[in-house]
Amino acid sequence: MTNEFTAIFECDGDWYIAYCPEIPGANAQGRTKDEARESLAEAISLILADRREDMLRGLPDDRIGSRRRYARASLSRKSAGNSP
Length: 84
Known about the structure:
single chain, 84 residues, four-stranded mixed β-sheet, elongated, Double Stranded RNA Binding Domain, 33% helix, alpha+beta
């Protein structure tokens, strides 16, 4: 399953800062915009996996099922501020 999320990028000196407004706590940084994007996608995937595990905690095994799907983040390209 692939989900699309918004990625906001800001340039701060030599670093790119990225965050996803749809997912609180999903933020990242990188020396390049691509590095920041990859790091943000990983952060989103980890947050969603953690939320899924929290949701499943305490459910009987027969209610969970044998197939586990993990979301893969796909980020749209948006920039904020003066980033190139």
